[in-house]
Amino acid sequence: MTYYHVSFDNPLTFYLQIQLVVAVPADATEPLALQLPAWRPGRYELQNFAQKILRVEASDADTDAPLPCYKTTKDRWEVSGAAGRAVRVRYRFYAHQLDAGGSWLDETQLYLNPVQALLYAVGHETEACQLTLALPAGWRVACGLPQSEPNVLPARDFDQLADSPLIASPTLQHEQYTAGGVSFHVWAQGDEAVLDWPRLLADFEAFSQSQLELFGSFPSGSSGSGNASNAEFHFLNQFVPGAYYHGVEHATSTVIVLGPAGQIMREELYKELLGVSCHELFHVWNVKAIRPAEMRPYDYARENYFSTCYVAEGLTTYYGEYLLCRARVRTPAQYLEELNTVLRRHFADAGGDNLSLADASTDLWLDGYRPGVPDRKVSVYHKGALVALLLDLTIRQLHQHQRSLDDVLRQLYQEFGQPDQPGYTAADYARVVSEVAGRDMKRYFDQFIHGTAPLLEPLSRALTGVGCELVALENSAEAERAFGLRAVARAERTSVAYCWPGSPAEALLSVDDEILAVNGRRETPNPLLLFTEGLPAYELTILRQGRLRTVTLRAEPGRTFGAVYEVQKRAAATAEQQAGFEKWLGVINEQ
Questions:
Q1: What is the DSSP string of 476-489?
Q2: CB atoms within 10 A of CB 467
Q3: Which is nearest to 328 in space by CA: 274, 279, 281, 284?
Q4: Can you tell me the distance from the alpha carbon of 441 to that of 431, in angstroms, rounded to the nearest whole number?
Q5: In sequence order, what are the residues at sequence separation of 6 or more whose Cβ sits closer than 8 angstroms to the Cβ of residue 168?
Q6: Nearest to 56 by CA among 72, 41, 40, 38
Q7: Contact call for residues 39 and 113 (beta carbons, < 8 A)
Q8: How far apart are CA 21 and CA 327, in angstroms?
Q9: Of the candidates 85, 83, 153, 155, which has an alpha carbon nearest to the alpha carbon of residue 120?
Q10: Contact 357, 314 (CB under 8 A)
Q11: CA-CA 20 to 30 A from 470: which of 116, 222, 483, 517?
Q12: Using CA atoms, how far apart are residues 225 and 380, in angstroms rounded to an integer?
């Protein structure tokens, strides 16, 4: 067993004192290798957590005699002379990252993501672990791991420990509910958060029950005991003072960071809480249990490339909002509003013309979480959700709603959802989709997964079958609609942010050009506010690379840019289409 101990002296420094003790076999011939994860599941990019590590030292745990300890890579250390010893390793970790994948320490709480802070002994990953926390009196712990005794958390192996974030605080709020025999715990950290617990618990229970009904059971591997009947799940909420939105999935918990804390129950923020919570719970099945083959098991030391994030995140993004409607937590009209948000984000640039979903999955490790260069990228979340919607509606219409994307997920869960089963490959997913659809779906995968075929027309046809239509609305911003120019204003400085391909703006402007005046006039904070007169041309004074320039944008008759697409109910929907709408969203009458 590997023993971990976490303590702190002065929380104002943000430093945690961490030590681990591991027994090394007497016949070991190589130095003891210690590895810190370089990334965390749920965010597929190298994050190099070792930059937060201070002063790694090793000693004999029995005599405290120092042992030679050398760093061999950016996040790996080796301890010589370890054979036959219990080796103690001490170091400090800088916990100053308050997001859903980070760690944070102050005088009010300890928030720890073990995956970024705990070294593991290479070759000992499958051994049991135990984490002991040295906490002030009156603090309690929220975590997906059971507590064998106060502040002591055992794990069956390093993978389970790494996947179990915790919050320790004297001010944690806690409530719970039961759905499908599973105990769900809702924790809230944040003094300003005033929650309507009855409403929140009723809504959470509804979408939890909906997910359990979809899959039929809770993953057996998610229970700390390995027994699904004893399964628990923990929503660990960090409600922060400022505006924030972030969530990360784990097998027995999720961490959600949301703010402003004082506005959690207001409609705009509460719907975000519902959406991210439903999304992250869905991940218990889709990615934690139904896991890509390339990540069974996880390799924490390097990239785990996989081409199916359109399944892991795309399907989850679709279902995260869709199931809120099916569970009667949100109305159909509210669901369509969220779907329209996904449409707006996907069609906000031309990236979908240049990168396939499969390649975008692989490229998450390259630049998937940053804006990147113009028109090179497509979101596995947004386009992934739209192609999931297209697939769901296609299967439903092929089988008069007797089959759906639900059946694909259930079959994936049956074939790949248990700990002793292999992970799925892209070919496995394509096979299951074709089996459920009852026909070869190669064209769907060639066009929308591995290709960059336009999505509008097929999506529009599919929506017609459920009494909806895809409507193109003109962009309300004249500069973008008529000239293809989108700008951003920050601190009284307005810069070109994006130019639509083939537009008048693209021919004359560059990203980061500063716009100083329009038709000789300067308007603060944003000169583009002067694009309100419907003129066929506008003269822009810009600053580019320290030099003043003047350019004239001329509209091209009959051409517009940056259309906004929305799904709307068809006023002339047939009775069959209306019935399809009700079966799709699981409602009888729209509220």
A1: S-HHHHHH-EEEEE
A2: 21
A3: 274
A4: 8
A5: 109, 110, 111, 112, 133, 135, 139, 140, 141, 142, 151
A6: 72
A7: no
A8: 47
A9: 155
A10: yes
A11: 483
A12: 34
At which residue do the structure tokens 């092929």 appear?
398
pLDDT in tens, the chain (591 residues): 999 999 999 999 999 999 999 999 999 999 999 999 999 999 999 999 999 999 999 999 999 999 999 999 999 999 999 999 999 999 999 999 999 999 999 999 999 999 999 999 999 999 999 999 999 999 999 999 999 899 999 999 999 999 999 999 999 999 999 999 999 999 999 988 899 999 999 999 999 999 999 999 999 865 443 444 579 999 999 999 999 999 999 999 999 999 999 999 999 999 999 999 999 999 999 999 999 999 999 999 999 999 999 999 999 999 999 999 999 999 999 999 999 999 999 999 999 999 999 999 999 999 989 888 999 999 999 999 999 999 999 999 999 999 999 999 999 999 999 999 999 999 999 999 999 999 999 999 999 999 999 999 999 999 999 999 999 999 999 999 999 999 998 887 899 999 999 999 999 999 999 999 999 888 766 777 778 878 999 999 999 999 999 999 999 999 999 999 999 999 999 999 999 999 999 876 544
In the block, residue with structure tokens 């672990």: 129
Q: Which domains does the chain have, with CATH numbers?
A: 2-169 (2.60.40.3650), 174-282 (1.10.390.10), 293-469 (1.10.390.10), 478-554 (2.30.42.10)
Nearest-angstrom CA–CA distance, 471 and 475:
12
